[in-house]
Amino acid sequence: MSTVLISGANRGIGLELARQFATDGWNVIGTAREPGAALGLAGLPNTRVLPLEVTDAASIGALVTALDGEPIDVLIANAGIAINLNAKPIEVTRDDFLALQETNGFAPLALAAALKPNILASERKIATAMSSLMSSIAANDWGTQYTYRASKTALNALWRQLAEAWRTEGITCTLLRPGLVATEMTGFNGLPVEVSVRGMKAVIEGLSLPDGGRIIGYDGTDVPW
Ligand SMILES: NC(=O)c1ccc[n+]([C@@H]2O[C@H](COP(=O)([O-])OP(=O)(O)OC[C@H]3O[C@@H](n4cnc5c(N)ncnc54)[C@H](OP(=O)(O)O)[C@@H]3O)[C@@H](O)[C@H]2O)c1
User: Fold this and answer.
1) Total of domains in the chain
2) In this structure, what DSSP letter does residue 138 have?
3) Is residue 224 a part of any domain in this protein?
4) 8 Cα: distance to centroid of ligand 1 (angstroms)
5) 64 exposure class (CB count in 10 Å sphere: 0-12, 13-18, 19+)
6) Which of 130, 140, 218, 207 is nearest to 167 (CA)?
7) Of 60, 158, 183, 184, which is best to mutate to test ligand 1, by the most ligand atoms within 8 angstroms of its C-beta?
8) Are 122 and 136 in contact (CB under 8 A)?
9) What residue owns the CA closest to ligand 1's atom 6?
10) C or N: which end of the chain has fewer Cβ atoms within 10 Å?
11) Is the distance from the beta carbon of residue 84 to the nearest atom of ligand 1 less than 6 Å?
């Protein structure tokens, strides 16, 4: 049985990813900042809930210890935040900028780096992270979301670098684009989460080494850089 580890799996896209992989017979490790409150996640079949605050190195270290070398076939670095999306340039704060860079950019890299031995020990060896159309500089004809966009663009750069660095070791590092999805992050506007996740799950299951470094949408199309 293959194992998927999903960060931020207590709600939104992460919870639906856990639900669809678990229902399909995968072994699911879902992380949550408050595992005791992650009742929907804990109630899924074949699913273990582990604590993780992605911006805390000690928390990542505790996760690695708890996994004790267990193979992770697919990492989905999904946990992310959006703050003050409609802030005008004069309203963009250094604190918001840095918080987004930390959670959406740095944390996925730190998590993947810490779990590299687990990924290497698996059969599939896939590391994915949740990007966004908002990450694209080429497709940006819509002047909003300064800090969120910059954080996902940083994630793309870091993940692309991982893809190049780890390719020779057989690890496929690919970025995912969920589309605009109806979750708490979007005020529940957009695609039903089931639709986005069904598409991304199909993408993930079809990944192989040449897909490393791509940004692939839930509909299978590439996001321009
Ligand atoms: N929804 C969209 O339209 C959309 C579009 C493009 C990309 N994305 C990306 O998809 C991912 C999931 O988004 P979503 O819509 O499902 O958002 P969401 O409903 O707001 O859920 C975010 C998840 O991330 C977790 N999280 C946030 N900060 C964390 C931290 N520091 N440590 C651990 N967990 C943390 C949250 O945990 P708590 O419950 O503890 O806060 C929650 O489980 C994000 O990376 C987002 O940027 C979403």
Assistant:
1) 1
2) T
3) no
4) 6
5) middle
6) 207
7) 183
8) no
9) 132
10) N
11) no
C-beta separation of 203 from 218 below 8 A:
yes
Per-residue DSSP letter, 169:
G
* CATH code, domain with 199: 3.40.50.720
Q: Which of 29, 81, 193 to mutate to test the pocket of ligand 1 (most atoms within 8 A of CB)?
A: 81
pLDDT in tens, 23-64: 999 999 999 999 999 999 999 999 999 999 999 999 999 999
**Taking phi first (over 0 means left), then psi (-120 to 50 degrees means alpha), and beta for anything else, what does residue 219 get?**
alpha
Ligand 1: centre distance to CA 162 (Å): 22
Give, for ligand 1, the residue of 6, 13, 104, 128 to mutate: max count of ligand atoms closer than 8 Å to Cβ. Answer: 13
- Give the position, in ligand 1's atom list, of the atom nearest the Cα of 77: 45
62: helix, strand or coil: helix
pLDDT of residue 209: 98
pTM greater than the 0.85 cutoff: yes
Summarize pLDDT for 94-105 with one digit per residue, the tens.
999 999 999 999
Residue tagged 């966009």 (tokens) = 149
